[in-house]
């Protein structure tokens, strides 16, 4: 399946170019949260879409009480324009496949205060309202699917779009993941003692936890012949998707990483590739003590070949954007394939010896041929979703 366009809203601002610039400039976007009163929290950082970018949404998409709804619509609009596709037109069967964790739930956060809970309407109770602004911005003539498999949501949405195109249900699939920074998420991770105070340091021996973020990432998928018929070239292609469930623990992956190993092998088998064909593993890499070590061992096992797998995580820069994380990482992977650049582990100082089975990319990144990228995502409850992306010029369907 071919990727014809990408779109993004992130802690770097509006647009996929801002996202990529932040990656290559090694920007670390974790900051003290300004949207909520964090004075009673031991860890007070997050990654917020900049206020100026939120204000700029007024000129891009309709208003909505859910920021997530607006992030998603803006990213989808950019993706369709990048693909050279109209936003309205019944001659294209366009479906929307969206992954999320909190959907519209953060609306409820605005009613939390010292005087008790003042519920601001019922929009927070209807998760599919997160699609409202997308429907106003883009004419969706095919199925609209909202998925919520934890933080694996973005990859799950991409896989769902691939299946819909392969089955002939749609001509165009707008596939995305979206998240709005939530006080509930900050409180939950605080209770789990899983938040870093200042910086996420994936795979570092001194890592202390993750930091929540927000945004939206979108891939526009089409059959390659449909793209070439418009005189355009695919940006990249989805070579394979795979999913698994550890069903081991509500908040921790299986200690052997069985789900991840299974999805990696599934992707390679379906794409007809070997471990040594993978040039970059875009890791889940949340910076937590348990998860990073398990992931490193599982990647080393799943991609055992003539060289150690090349691995980096973007969460040291952008935090963990939950439902948007994997989708934003897929947007970055598309650009990495085009630019032949592997992003670095920007906040890495001292690699954990327990992660010695993988080749951790130095903070500056690497200029090297990038022909295939494996991007993986975990969700609470043991869900794992992995996608394998390849260069666009050899797309074959």
Automatic annotation (TrEMBL):
<feature type="domain" description="Ketosynthase family 3 (KS3)">
    <location>
        <begin position="1"/>
        <end position="391"/>
    </location>
</feature>
<dbReference type="Pfam" id="PF02801">
    <property type="entry name" value="Ketoacyl-synt_C"/>
</dbReference>
<dbReference type="InterPro" id="IPR014030">
    <property type="entry name" value="Ketoacyl_synth_N"/>
</dbReference>
<protein>
    <submittedName>
        <fullName>Beta-ketoacyl synthase N-terminal-like domain-containing protein</fullName>
    </submittedName>
</protein>
<dbReference type="InterPro" id="IPR018201">
    <property type="entry name" value="Ketoacyl_synth_AS"/>
</dbReference>
<dbReference type="InterPro" id="IPR016039">
    <property type="entry name" value="Thiolase-like"/>
</dbReference>
<dbReference type="Pfam" id="PF00109">
    <property type="entry name" value="ketoacyl-synt"/>
</dbReference>
<dbReference type="InterPro" id="IPR020841">
    <property type="entry name" value="PKS_Beta-ketoAc_synthase_dom"/>
</dbReference>
<dbReference type="InterPro" id="IPR000794">
    <property type="entry name" value="Beta-ketoacyl_synthase"/>
</dbReference>
<comment type="similarity">
    <text>Belongs to the thiolase-like superfamily. Beta-ketoacyl-ACP synthases family.</text>
</comment>
<dbReference type="InterPro" id="IPR014031">
    <property type="entry name" value="Ketoacyl_synth_C"/>
</dbReference>
<keyword id="KW-0808">Transferase</keyword>
């Amino acid at each position: 399946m071919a990727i014809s366009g990408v779109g993004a809203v992130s802690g770097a601002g509006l647009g996929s170019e801002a996202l990529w610039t932040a990656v290559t400039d090694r920007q670390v976007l974790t900051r003290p949260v300004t949207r909520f009163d964090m004075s009673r929290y031991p860890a007070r950082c997050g990654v917020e879409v900049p206020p100026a970018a939120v204000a700029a949404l007024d000129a891009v998409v309709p208003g909505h009480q859910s920021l997530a709804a607006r992030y998603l619509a803006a990213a989808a609009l950019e993706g369709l324009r990048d693909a050279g596709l109209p936003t309205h037109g019944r001659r294209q069967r366009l479906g929307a496949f969206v992954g999320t964790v909190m959907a519209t739930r953060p609306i409820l956060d605005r009613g939390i205060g010292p005087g008790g809970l003042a519920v601001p309407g019922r929009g927070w109770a209807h998760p599919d309202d997160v699609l409202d602004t997308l429907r106003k911005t883009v004419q969706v003539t095919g199925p609209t699917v909202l998925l919520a498999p934890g933080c694996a949501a973005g990859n799950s949405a991409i896989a769902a779009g691939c299946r819909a195109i392969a089955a002939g249900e749609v001509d165009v699939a707008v596939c995305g993941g979206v998240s709005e920074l939530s006080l509930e998420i900050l409180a939950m991770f605080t209770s789990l003692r899983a938040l870093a105070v200042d910086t996420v340091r994936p795979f570092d021996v001194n890592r202390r936890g993750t930091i929540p973020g927000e945004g939206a990432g979108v891939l526009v998928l089409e059959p390659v012949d449909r793209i070439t018929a418009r005189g355009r070239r695919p940006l990249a292609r989805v070579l394979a998707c795979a999913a698994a469930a550890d069903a081991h623990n509500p908040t921790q992956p299986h200690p052997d990483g069985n789900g991840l190993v299974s999805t990696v092998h599934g992707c390679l088998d379906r794409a007809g590739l070997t471990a040594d064909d993978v040039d970059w593993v875009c890791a889940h890499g949340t910076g937590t003590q348990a998860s990073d070590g398990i992931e490193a061992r599982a990647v080393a096992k799943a991609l055992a070949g003539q060289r150690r797998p090349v691995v980096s995580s973007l969460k040291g820069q952008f935090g963990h954007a939950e439902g948007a994380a994997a989708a934003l990482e897929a947007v970055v992977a598309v650009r990495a394939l085009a630019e032949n650049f592997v992003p670095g582990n920007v906040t890495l100082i001292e690699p954990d010896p327990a992660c010695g089975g993988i080749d951790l990319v130095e903070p500056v990144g690497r200029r090297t041929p990038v022909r295939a990228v494996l991007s993986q995502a975990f969700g609470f409850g043991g869900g794992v979703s992995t996608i394998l992306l390849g260069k666009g010029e050899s797309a074959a369907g």
